[in-house]
Q: What sequence folds into this?
């Protein structure tokens, strides 16, 4: 317990020393993807939640996007959920969230290394290497990656113990922490962890079978293997159940997106160039982390691999010596194999291994950046170094206990007493030396590392662009239906419109909708589609056919022909498929004709609706209530027509007219339409994703299962102790 408390205090002070400037001196800010991808999304989600609404849908990017289905938003990640429930995310809160996970990474790596090496001081050093070396330091701006990676050592600790002791409670906790890694929001990192678990399981089973001999009872071997299968199954099942609240909506999104599958060439982008391995021992190789402009071959965040020479030498010694010692042979061979596999996979286009994963391993055809596999390489280095200290600990523990006869003769011998003290303290002494060397290598480099945070004030990073102030002023005079959108406006790109409450037709997300991407490609060639999308401000290059006639604001064109976000259309034509729908949308008069992809079930005025007694040419739409994912409209129309809503159509949207369910049609390729009988009506259009409902039920089952499994094992252990004590 004292060691645990010491480690906690140590990592708190270590993390604070590295992040002293942003935390204490308030100079330093989140940067890059931490701003554009993570902060703006989490701000929107937490703000919506604090206003009393579920952050299911965001209307401020991509003409509407299923926020809850985006894994990288990570709103259901327990840390983010707690912050989002009680407060609204700020840049400072994101920074503190990132810092917290550096503490997690260090402490969890310490726990794993201590279990493997039985050396306290080395384990402290291992935590420093994992938290501030290589992968973790490089990806501070990739919050989902960093958060996911921080849980890896703890997951492996529970996996190893669960398989060794055949404890279902450890398996359940391993599954719980794996679900945390999944919910943290980076699919690729979660996938690597899931495969690493499977690899260790296969290795462990193979070792069990290979270690048996002719005298071993085959039934015992079979029972042992089946129990291991049970343990790993519990881990995976628990992890899936708990994270189902996120996984099921995300799976639905992948079916609608452009990233259902990528090419081999794209999957190999950001491969690890073998020349960059020099950065393992040189912290600023190619000026990657501080100093002059970066000169490396690809993304600098992928090229910071620094672990230091000390831990690499210890890992090399562990790999060489560990194979010859029976007590460490299994774990040494496992870590060595994982290290080799992860390294050669990371080479991507520069190697041979990644393409086989792409072709044959499920889900590897959906991810890119093979260099990210260096996360497992880093863990393997720590594992091999732990093997070295496990050998040292075992070796000296034997030497300090000489045979009884020799011990009796040497009781009063000074050399014996000195030798006993030396042998007893030698592992700790070696651990202290390694700790000091590793800390001296890693921490100074981390304190200078500009990849960890921006050396700017938060106010400089989040300065409000003038165009945002202009749009806010215009919006103040418009209701929701009459508000316009923007497209590719500098300073308001990369999802920042969610914080400004500005409707945008663009945004940043790897899982952007396929239909939206296709519509955008057509839109930049056909200005009428720009009008239909309700876009007012955009770079002139995207509306070249009209650019000479439009008002300019700098490089932006002001398109005053934009349509309202909702209006009535009398007539329609049918398209047989998606391709034809997009083609016809570019050809028809979009103010008079709507393009549908199925024959509508029209209903005229009847007993279900009030009698239409409105005067001719009545056409009114007003917003009664609006919040993300919900429209309540009051309409008056002298005749039956289609209500067009300029919002991306997506599974889960429902509509009611005067409390009667009606169908939402795919309109003009991307948008929504509802057939409305003539007269006065109240229309409710609401996003209610079914996968979220099913996922919530499964998550509750998963959390309950963990509680019951741990409680059962606890009660079982307590009964055993009572029985042994005779009570």
A:
């Amino acid at each position: 317990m004292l060691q645990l408390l010491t480690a906690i205090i140590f990592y708190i002070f270590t993390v604070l020393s590295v992040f002293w400037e942003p935390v204490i001196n308030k100079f330093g800010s989140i940067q890059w993807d931490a701003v554009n991808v993570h902060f703006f999304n989490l701000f929107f989600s937490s703000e919506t939640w604090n206003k009393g609404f579920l952050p299911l849908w965001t209307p401020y990017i991509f003409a509407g996007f299923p926020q809850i289905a985006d894994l990288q938003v990570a709103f259901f990640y327990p840390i983010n959920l707690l912050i989002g429930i009680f407060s609204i995310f700020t840049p400072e809160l994101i920074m503190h969230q990132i810092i917290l996970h550096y503490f997690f990474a260090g402490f969890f790596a310490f726990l794993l290394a201590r279990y493997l090496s039985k050396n306290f001081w080395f384990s402290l050093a291992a935590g420093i290497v994992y938290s501030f070396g290589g992968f973790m330091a490089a990806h501070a701006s990739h919050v989902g990656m960093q958060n996911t990676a921080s849980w890896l050592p703890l997951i492996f600790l529970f996996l190893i113990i669960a398989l060794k002791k055949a404890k279902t409670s450890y398996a359940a906790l391993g599954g719980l922490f794996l679900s945390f890694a999944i919910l943290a929001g980076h699919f690729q990192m979660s996938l690597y962890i899931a495969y690493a678990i499977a690899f260790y399981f296969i290795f462990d089973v193979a070792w069990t079978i290979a270690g048996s001999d002719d005298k071993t009872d085959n039934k015992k071997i079979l029972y042992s293997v089946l129990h291991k299968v049970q343990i790993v199954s519990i881990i995976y099942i628990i992890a899936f159940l708990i994270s189902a609240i996120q996984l099921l909506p995300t799976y639905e999104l992948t079916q609608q997106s452009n990233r259902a599958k990528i090419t081999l060439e794209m999957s190999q982008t950001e491969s690890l160039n073998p020349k960059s391995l020099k950065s393992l021992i040189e912290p600023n190789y190619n000026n990657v982390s501080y100093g002059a402009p970066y000169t490396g071959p690809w993304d600098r965040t992928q090229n910071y691999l620094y672990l230091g020479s000390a831990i690499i030498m210890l890992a090399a010694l562990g790999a060489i010596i560990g194979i010859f010692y029976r007590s460490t042979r299994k774990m040494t061979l496992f870590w060595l194999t994982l290290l080799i596999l992860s390294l050669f996979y990371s080479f991507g286009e520069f190697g041979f291994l990644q393409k086989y994963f792409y072709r044959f391993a499920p889900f590897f055809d959906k991810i890119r950046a093979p260099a990210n596999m260096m996360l497992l390489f880093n863990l393997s280095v720590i594992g091999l170094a732990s093997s070295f200290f496990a050998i040292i600990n075992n070796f000296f523990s034997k030497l300090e206990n000489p045979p009884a006869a020799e011990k009796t003769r040497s009781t009063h011998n000074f050399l014996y007493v000195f030798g006993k003290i030396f042998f007893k303290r030698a592992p700790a002494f070696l651990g202290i030396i390694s700790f000091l060397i590793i800390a001296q290598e890693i921490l100074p480099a981390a304190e200078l590392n500009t990849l960890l945070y921006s050396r700017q004030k938060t106010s400089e990073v989040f300065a409000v662009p003038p165009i945002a102030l202009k749009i806010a002023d215009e919006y103040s005079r418009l209701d929701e239906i009459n508000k316009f959108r923007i497209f590719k406006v500098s300073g308001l790109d990369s999802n920042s419109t969610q914080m400004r409450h500005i409707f945008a037709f663009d945004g940043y997300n790897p899982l952007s909708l396929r239909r939206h991407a296709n519509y955008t490609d057509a839109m930049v060639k056909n200005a009428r589609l720009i009008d239909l999308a309700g876009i007012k401000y955009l770079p002139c290059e995207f509306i070249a056919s009209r650019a000479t006639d439009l008002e300019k604001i700098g490089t932006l064109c002001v398109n005053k022909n934009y349509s309202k976000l909702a209006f009535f259309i009398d007539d329609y034509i049918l398209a047989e498929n998606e391709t034809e729908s997009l083609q016809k949308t570019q050809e028809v008069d979009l103010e008079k004709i709507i393009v549908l992809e199925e024959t509508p079930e029209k209903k005229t005025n009847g007993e279900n609706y009030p009698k239409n007694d409105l005067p001719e040419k009545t056409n009114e739409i007003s917003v009664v209530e609006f919040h993300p994912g919900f429209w309540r409209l009051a309409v008056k129309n002298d005749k039956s027509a289609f209500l067009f809503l300029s919002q991306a159509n997506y599974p889960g949207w429902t509509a009611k007219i005067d409390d009667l369910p009606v169908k939402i049609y795919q309109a003009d390729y991307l948008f929504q339409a509802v057939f409305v009988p003539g007269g006065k009506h109240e229309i409710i259009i609401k996003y209610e994703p079914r996968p979220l409902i099913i996922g919530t039920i499964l998550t509750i089952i998963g959390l309950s299962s963990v509680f019951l499994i741990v409680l059962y094992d606890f009660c079982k252990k307590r009964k055993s102790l009572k029985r042994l004590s005779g009570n």
In short: The first strand starts at residue 485 and ends at 486. The chain has a mean pLDDT of 93. The CA atoms of residues 277 and 305 lie 7 Å apart. The first helix runs from residue 2 to 18.
